[in-house]
Amino acid sequence: MDRSGFKRNLNSGGVYRICEEHDYESQEKYMQAVFCQKLLFVKRSRQRWGYFMTYAEDLELRKNKWNIKYQERDGAKTRVIMLDMTGIEAYRFGAADLQRNTYSKYYAGNYFKGGIGIQLCSWGVTWALWGGHESDSGYHKSAGYLEAQEEFQKKDIVHNTTTNILEVVPFTNILDKGYRAHAANWRHREQLTAQPIFGKSDQQFKGSETKYSASIASDRGANERGVNISKRSGIIKQGFKPGMDAALFDDAWLSWGYM
Which residues of the chain, if any, have pLDDT below 70? Predict the structure, then answer.
């Protein structure tokens, strides 16, 4: 039925009159209670389900182009995750410490920043919001997802049919060139790093270096789409406003990314 037909039925039928006769106006406190209950349910589901897809699930669900590009074969397995940061606008705080911790030079304003990870099978995960003053490299080292990845890859043992042994397949972290992350990644169970080559302003890259950097940048386009999806929630779009509960706002960010 088209939209105009639906409107005519409402105006001519009993549904319209019932809505007029009874006051169904929602009270804000009840709507907040429904929102908080749903948020709690999703938050618990996120904690129980796990943050990452197993190697077998990732291999089964991702497109074959990734297997070709990353040379996935039985003797050389890959567990890739694309990591990025995004900013969420906040208001200007009156307290000096909050103002300092949330002010971002990059955005020239008060922001929270959160981490986002996407595996090749399109499974995404978000990480806790921090003040916008923190650098991307500092967040990457201390947010806790490197430890979570280390623990996960240690448990998700993969059978290599070529050598007939069980092996740990480390995460390969694909990052923007602004991160200083090689040492931090390696310290967490020898996780690998792939990012565009960084050089001084007057340095000229070789052909192979240019192709490598362009290839990484192309792959990260998928991650940018994941960032956009993670910010479609209405409460995240409007930003952090005065009077909002910071813990609830962070839970909304984490839960929406999980959904």
Answer: 1-26, 74, 198-205, 222, 259
CB 250 within 8 A of CB 129: yes
Q: What is the pLDDT of residues 15-40, one digit of tens each?
A: 334 344 455 555 778 888 888 898 89
Q: What is the DSSP string of 161-175?
A: TTTTEEE---EEEE-
Predicted confidence (pLDDT) per residue in 195-211, tens digit: 988 665 556 667 777 88
CA 28 to mean position of chain CA atoms: 30
104, containing H or E segment: strand 103-104
Query: How far apart (Å, rounded) are the C-alpha atoms in residues 120 and 68?
Result: 12
**Ordered alpha helix ranges (H), 116-206:** 136-142, 145-155, 182-187
Tokens standing for residue 176: 């923007």
C-beta separation of 157 from 129 below 8 A:
no
Helix (H) or strand (E) holding 193, with range, is strand 192-194
